[in-house]
Amino acid sequence: MIGASPSTQGQRPTMDFDSEKDYGLFEGMSTETLLTLAPGDIALLFPGELHRPMGTLTDPAPIRKLVVKVANHLL
């Protein structure tokens, strides 16, 4: 399961954005949508969208996470 939100608008950052590592952290997500993923499913998120990976409905399970970043001008 992954939580996702369409933007950072209205969200409170808990740290300054780390441009070197390309990430930031926020305090909760007020507009979060939960996506339940099955084996073989993918979640596609665009720049500016928040995500909270590694959630589970029941017991923790092994998960593989792959991040591929595409330059904005190519989208």
From TrEMBL:
SUPFAM superfamilies noted in UniProt: Clavaminate synthase-like
Biased composition (Polar residues): 1-12
Superkingdom per UniProt: Bacteria
Coiled-coil blocks: none
Gene3D superfamilies: YhcH/YjgK/YiaL
Alphabetized InterPro entries for the sequence: NanQ/TabA/YiaL (IPR004375), NanQ/TabA/YiaL_sf (IPR037012)
Pfam family, one: DUF386
UniProt-annotated stretches for the region Disordered: 1-21
Name of this protein: Protein YjgK, linked to biofilm formation
Species per Swiss-Prot/TrEMBL record: Yersinia pestis
